[in-house]
Amino acid sequence: MVKGLRGGGQISDLSGKVVLLTGATRGIGRKAAHGIAPTGATIVVVGRDKERVDMLISELEQIEGCGPVHGEICDLLVQKEIRSLADRFNNQFDRLDVLINNAGAIFTKKITTVDGFERTWALNHNAYFLLTSLLKDKLLTTPDSRVISTASDAHVPGRMGWDDLQYERRGNRNGWSSYCQSKLANILFTKELAKKLEGTSVTANCIHPGFVNTGFSRNNGIIGRLLMALTWPVQRNSTKGAETIVWLAISDKARQHNGDYLYNCKLGRLTKAAKNEEDAARLWLLSEEMTGTSGVW
């Protein structure tokens, strides 16, 4: 048993259990992988760049107690690649104990993906929804499995633009508005997912990592890099940002949570919009249409 994790409780030996983590090669994803590795769980790390994935695998294998580590290359902006990732996983593993939807970004320039969606929405919401749906059967057949999604307090100013989710007409404030909308969607998705999973042993929760410089601003030009540099004094480090993900993934005590939004391993504050059950149900139906998963649930 491993003791001392924030949030209380003991951490069981997770040898033989399987964890799938997206956005694993940078920032809080990388630190989450480091935090989970000592439990002995089999970890499947997902990233876009093979060199970074291989580097992470080498790091994890040096950690005492680390179990088997597998790398997967996938561009989560592309639904075809997500489907291929899910197929590979389903063919290789007979269980999924923890699914961590962590990959995310803010894109200051509006570009549409090959599937026809604004990039921030495609990565931060559609990818979560599609991957979780495609791995549904593995989650349901694995006792006490968990789904953890990285949301954010950026949901606070977020609004669901039901008539213009892809920002084809609305102003996007250099990507910030679509980012806030996507983080609100993460919470609504989690709330509705927990409802869909009622009566099963699967739990679904989401987290706010705090203001962490994860490096995703590097792809957004000099303005993005400048903003992150100016706010450096109030940023948390990645280890601190990953703490709640690790706790939800491996702590026995974390099983008390379902459909919750957590920060620092405790319940976080939600806006009225993030608690709207009708919006959560509406988003679910739209998400099924956008990802071609109608009938899966």
Could you list some keywords that capture this structure?
297 residues; alpha/beta; Rossmann fold; 8-stranded mixed β-sheet; 9 helices; globular
Q: What oligomerization state is this entry in?
A: single chain
Radius of gyration: 18 Å
- How many structurally independent domains? 1
The spatial strand order of the largest sheet comes to 3-2-1-4-5-6-7-8
Proportion of helical residues: 25-40%
Beta-strand percent range: 5-15%
Helix vs. strand class? alpha/beta
Per DSSP, the total helix count is 9
Q: Output the helix-strand order.
A: EHEHEHEHHEHEHHEEH
Q: What is the residue-averaged pLDDT?
A: 91
Per CATH, the superfamily is NAD(P)-binding Rossmann-like Domain
The major β-sheet equals: 8 strands, mixed
For the record, give the distance between the C-alpha atoms at the N and C termini, rounded to a whole number: 36 Å
Number of strands: 8
Q: What is the CATH fold-level name?
A: Rossmann fold
At the first level of CATH, the class is Alpha Beta
Explain briefly what this protein structure is:
It contains 9 helices and 8 strands. With 297 residues, it is α/β, with parallel strands linked by helices.
Give a written overview of the molecule.
The protein has 9 helices and 8 strands. Helix content is 39%, strand content 11%. Helix 1 packs across helix 8 (238-250) and helix 6 crosses helix 9. Helix 6 (176-196) links the parallel strand 5 and strand 6. An 8-stranded mixed β-sheet has the order 3-2-1-4-5-6-7-8, with helices on both faces. Mean pLDDT is 91; it is low at 226-235. It has helices at 27-36, 50-61, 79-92, 119-134, 136-141, 176-196, 221-230, 238-250, 277-291, and strands at 18-21, 42-47, 69-73, 98-101, 146-150, 203-207, 261-263, 266-267. It starts with 17 loop residues before the first strand and ends in a 6-residue tail after the last helix. The protein is globular and about 50 Å long. It has one domain: 3-Layer(aba) Sandwich (Rossmann fold), CATH 3.40.50.720. It has 297 residues and is of the alpha/beta class.
